[in-house]
Amino acid sequence: MGSGGSQKVFASVKSFSQRGQLLSKADLQTLAESRDLDELITRIKNTKYADAVSKLAKPYTAGAVESALRSELADIHYSIANTAGKSDILDAYYLKFIISNLKLILKGKALGKSQEEIEPNLNLHAEELINQRDIIVKALVAKDLEEAVASLGTIEFGDEVAKAVTIYNDKKNVQVFDVFLDKILYQQLGRAVRNARDRDLMRLVGMDIDFYNILSILRGKFWGLDEEQIKNLIVTHTPSVPRDLLGKLISLDSVKSVLDEISTTRYKELVPQTDSDIESISQFEHNFEMAIYKAVNRSFTKMFSFATIVGITKLTAYEVRNIAAIAFAVDQKIAPQTTMSRLIVDKED
Question: Model pTM?
């Protein structure tokens, strides 16, 4: 066991201690019960995210809270990756930060928004940590969608972005960018996991890939994409959803028939009982994320496994997403029980 091995052991131990510091369901409930953003910030200051929000100036906005938390999350993930040593899998998960900024920029440009309108929603801290800020800034200052896409042509996933624009021009649905940019991330994950020999890790990352592939097929059916266009969205297949099953799902003619087919697979428990396409996609997505969350928590039964390092990366991401969702809900005066039902958190905490 070289230094890489002992580094991973240290990172795994650190992951366990970080998991112990995650906010409980009761903590999140307290945040969700805040009367307004001022009270929410005061309550966040009693958690480990105190430093993250202490720099925020009044009047608070939900977007500013989310941005501050994303900076903190980038620091957490960067530090986990540094502790664990070189890992293609952690690099792929880190790509999420860059992808989410590119989504904001490309969707903004597609809707004809100016740089001044898009910029406040971006947080480039993750890019700054790995010296990749230029890519995002180039796309941001481009005068329109075409120019933004051209500026991304030189990076390794430029062709995926170009495909997204082609389908966008056909369907005029900006959500197409979400799926195509996610594809970049899951493709990288698929490549990275192929070289991993760790069964627990394969299972965790495999579930993420299944989640992406199945939801892309469902969304593609919902948007009326043809089979060829949907095939273009699929990344690597996994033992849990092999190639022939993906092929069968793509060839089916409706959201409902895809979900019926999934009811014959290991993911049958996740299929919701509802007739509305949009409702069933959104419920299935939530159920799947809850299943991933539970699987991640189960990965902590083994000490010194790399799966725990990936696990803490995912759990901290869910936590930040939960707090950001609470900030938007508090701002919009959404009832706490409604907010809590939408979070990715242990329901039996």
Answer: 0.93
